[in-house]
Write a structure and sequence with these properties.
This protein is an alpha+beta fold. The chain has two helices and 20 strands. The protein folds into two domains: 118 residues, no CATH class; 138 residues, no CATH class.
């Protein structure tokens, strides 16, 4: 076994280590509202071509194959799976799930608009609908304010937000939820806290009311769960561990052979 084989096996260990990290993160977020799992893509590296296909032999015939030795593998991308997660019925007035395409728009204190599938919202001291977080309550965009004397909130499938006040059965309109969608959602930048940021790869956001032009609809009293399937991830974890162990054994075997060769050369 040559030194090249050691480096080749090492690239496999390094790439598989990255896949283990991705799979571990998927499993860690199995209960995270609106979380979308990631998958790891691999691609082979360069090849050392000792003889090219189509080489002309002594009789003038072209050889059907060549001799190429690969130099390992690397992680080419981690793709986000945006398939719909299952819904959990909570009954909360400000628990919202998007059935279909779309992201909620969130205003960061920096002035930047972020995007999320997590619809667990609350009301702050100013009556604004904000993300439910002990770290930072970012307002929903467009901004929607609920009066202090309201006794109930009704949010339709079309994103229309209405509220009921004391001693009245009529509903008053508070605002309209708009959803955003992207030509390439996999190009969104992951920020943590279930937030995404638009990039040049994702394209500019397409805005519209829920239910219009391909946008999903709003389901009040529900939350979208993570789309991580624990059984699938565990199977993936086992196969990745086995592949890592095989590459590790290749490195160990190669090191032993190199030591043996070095010892023979002393004589």
């Amino acid at each position: 076994m040559s030194i090249q084989a050691l480096y080749t096996a090492a690239t496999g260990m390094n790439s598989l280590s990255t896949k283990l990290d991705v799979t571990s993160n998927n499993l860690a977020n199995v209960n995270t509202t609106g979380f979308k799992r990631s998958k790891t893509d691999f691609q082979d590296l360069f090849y050392r071509n000792l003889k090219l296909p189509g080489y002309q032999d002594q009789l003038g015939n072209l050889t059907p194959t060549g001799i190429a030795i690969g130099l390992g593998t690397r992680v080419s991308a981690t793709q986000t799976d945006f398939t719909q997660g299952s819904f959990n019925e909570t009954g909360g007035q400000l628990d919202l799930a998007i059935s279909g395409n779309g992201f909620f728009q969130i205003l960061d204190p920096s002035g930047q608009i972020y995007y999320t599938r997590a619809g667990n919202f609350s009301i702050n001291s100013n009556g604004q609908i904000v993300t439910s977080s002990s770290i930072d309550g970012r307002p929903l965009q467009p901004a929607i304010t609920i009066p202090q004397d309201s006794t109930g909130i009704v949010i339709g499938n079309n994103g229309l937000v209405q509220y009921q006040q004391f001693n009245t059965t009529q509903l008053s309109q508070a605002g309209q939820i708009q959803l955003a969608w992207f030509q390439n959602p996999e190009g969104l930048l992951k920020l943590g806290e279930s937030l995404y940021q638009a990039t040049q790869a994702s394209g500019v956001p397409l805005l519209n009311n829920p239910g219009l032009q391909g946008m999903g609809t709003i389901q009040q009293g529900m939350l979208e769960q993570s789309n991580v399937e624990p059984v699938t991830e565990l199977i993936d974890l086992i196969t990745t561990q086995r592949a890592f162990e095989l590459n590790s054994q290749m490195v160990q075997a190669g090191d032993q052979i190199l030591q043996l060769v070095a010892n023979l050369r002393r004589y």
